[in-house]
Design a protein that fits this description.
By secondary structure, the protein is of the alpha/beta class. It has 3 domains: about 180 residues, FAD/NAD(P)-binding domain; about 120 residues, FAD/NAD(P)-binding domain; about 120 residues, Enolase-like, domain 1 (2-Layer Sandwich), CATH 3.30.390. It contains 12 helices and 23 strands. Strands 1, 2, 3, 4, 5, 6 and 18 form a 7-stranded mixed β-sheet that branches. A 5-stranded antiparallel β-sheet has the order 19-20-23-22-21, sandwiched between helices. Strand 9, helix 6 and strand 10 form a beta-alpha-beta unit. The longest helix has 26 residues. The chain is globular and about 70 Å long.
């Protein structure tokens, strides 16, 4: 049955950007509705991303603890830990369900946001009967649910936000389309893991899942096209992580020129049986075939921008399918904003939330206009310059063991821009806390401006890097110098001292420094 409803703000998507948007909209007294397209409410992070992967990383860490014990005083029997993968996924599902309910469904209810389930798309705004008393304008934007539970429903808003997220992307490797393979989403449906898996890709998804699966007993081989893993980050980080993974027993092969993927043929009696996956590749000019019981494709994501009516309402996309937005997150349709993975990198949950928040601020004006809603009669940003995000000060984290974290400019980027680089690197094995707990894998590199001494980049591999990167993020965001960090007393002994030591390396020879030299 068809039904029409009208709101101040309508949203296509139900993830982090959408919920940040409805929170800001509620503060302004705006009526809101969203069409949850694709994944269950909450989007990628809660359903198939951050929450399940970090839970399973903790499961895997517990499984590997006896094997990695560095202390002679602690002894284990020869028995290896047993991991019931199906039970682990049951625990993940229960955790996701709790998060989805308390952090999304209950939040939407609190902010009185109407949620419509089904596949939604933007359609031409036409004069149509509405159940709301809010007058409609020819500039209003309409989302129609074309499939799903609420099929036939149309919701119209003064402004609209597109926050449809992204999905796993597979590269154009010959034969891949005809082969079943895992992604970061489908692996969560597999209750009976194979003995061996070949992973194509070496970004954060490939490394996190590679370590999870290896530590629960799967033989893992990681194949990467470029010359190092984590190719989008500072070079030292990728080299350190490859060393750590190989020391753990995970095979990592870089510099692949993929030829094709096929099921390997194995002899079983008189018959040939097709099972698993074989990746035909060339490394340094030498042809090689890598086989496994299954294939996992972890080569990145693509924006969910097709089939949602963007062209219908005059919204342009970029060559890679991401939605074209300005610095204020406004699309080429002035009444429609976009946020989250669908507009491109950095495709992070916290960034999506910040973008969703800023999109509403820019669409409806400054904080002084809160609760004014449509009655203000002002166009977007009429009363202010709008808000934007400093993406250079956004930290990136890989939750492997050791962890990887980075913010700001890399050494290579700085060299390309300035023709010189003032950089220092300290090894975790020289940090007192790391030595005390025998967890010394990793390093910290600091990149500073060669004239002002302001910190412009920090890159870390090591224990608790995901937590300690925030001090570095504040340094980059607010232009702190290396002396500002040196002059700040740090608790001893902590892993955060590694950042201070790297800053001290600009001023002294840290190899002859006692633990607490200031």
């Amino acid at each position: 049955m068809e039904a029409d409803y009208s709101y101040d703000l309508v949203i296509l998507g139900g993830g982090a950007a959408s919920f940040a948007a409805i929170t800001e909209a509620s503060d302004r007294g705006l009526s809101t509705a969203m069409v949850n397209t694709g994944l269950p409410i909450g989007g990628t992070c809660v359903n198939v991303g951050c929450v399940p992967s970090k839970h399973l990383l903790a499961v895997a860490e517990s499984a590997s603890a006896p094997r990695d014990n560095p202390f002679d005083a602690v002894q284990y029997s020869d028995d290896e830990p047993t991991v019931d993968w199906a039970t682990a996924l049951d625990g993940t599902d229960a955790l996701v369900e709790r998060f989805r309910q308390t952090n999304y469904v209950d939040v939407a209810d609190h902010f009185e946001t109407d949620i419509y389930e089904g596949y939604g798309k933007l359609v031409d705004s036409v004069e149509q009967r509405s159940t709301s008393n809010r007058p409609q304008s020819s500039d209003d934007t309409t989302i129609e649910v074309v499939d799903g539970v609420d099929e036939g429903t149309r919701i119209t808003g003064q402004k609209a936000l597109v926050a449809t997220g992204s999905s796993p992307w597979a590269p154009p490797i010959d034969g891949l389309d005809g082969l079943d393979y895992y992604t970061s989403e489908t692996i969560l449906e597999e209750r009976d893991l194979p003995e061996s898996i070949v992973i194509v890709g070496s970004g954060y998804i490939a490394l996190e899942w590679g370590q999870i699966l290896h530590r629960v007993g799967v033989d893992i081989t990681i194949l990467q096209r470029s010359e190092r893993v984590l190719s989008g980050m500072e070079g030292q980080l990728g080299r350190e992580m490859q060393r750590a993974f190989e020391a753990e027993g995970i095979e990592v092969v870089t510099g692949n020129d993929f030829q094709r993927v096929r099921p390997p043929a194995t002899d079983s009696g008189a018959e040939s049986v097709q099972s698993g996956a074989a990746v035909e590749t060339a490394v340094d000019g030498t042809e090689r075939t890598v086989t496994g019981d299954a294939l996992f494709v972890a080569t990145g994501v693509q924006p969910n921008s097709t089939g949602i009516g963007l062209k219908t309402v005059g919204i342009e996309t970029n060559d890679d399918g991401t939605i074209n937005v300005d610095e204020h997150l406004q699309t080429t349709n002035p009444n429609v904003y976009a946020a989250g993975d669908v507009i491109g990198e950095p495709q992070l949950e916290t960034v999506a939330a910040k973008e969703g928040n800023h999109a509403v601020k820019n669409a409806y004006g400054s904080a002084e206009q809160r609760s004014a809603g449509r009655s203000s009669g002002q166009s977007p940003r009429e009363d202010n310059e709008g808000v934007s995000i400093d993406y250079d000060a956004v930290p990136a984290v890989v939750f492997t063991d050791p962890e990887v974290a980075a913010v700001g400019t890399t050494e290579l980027e700085y060299m390309d821009e300035h023709g010189t680089c003032s950089c220092r690197t300290v090894q975790m094995e020289d940090v007192p806390r790391a030595k005390a707990v025998k967890n010394t894998d990793g390093l910290v590199q600091v990149v500073k401006h060669h004239e002002t001494d302001e910190i412009v980049g920090v890159h870390v591999v090591g224990p608790r890097a995901a937590d300690t990167i925030m001090e570095a993020t504040l340094a980059v965001k607010f232009g702190l110098t290396v002396d500002d960090i040196i002059d700040t007393v740090h608790p001893f002994p902590t892993f955060s001292e590694a950042f201070k030591h790297a800053c001290q390396a600009f001023r002294r020879d840290t190899s002859t420094m006692s633990c607490c030299v200031e």
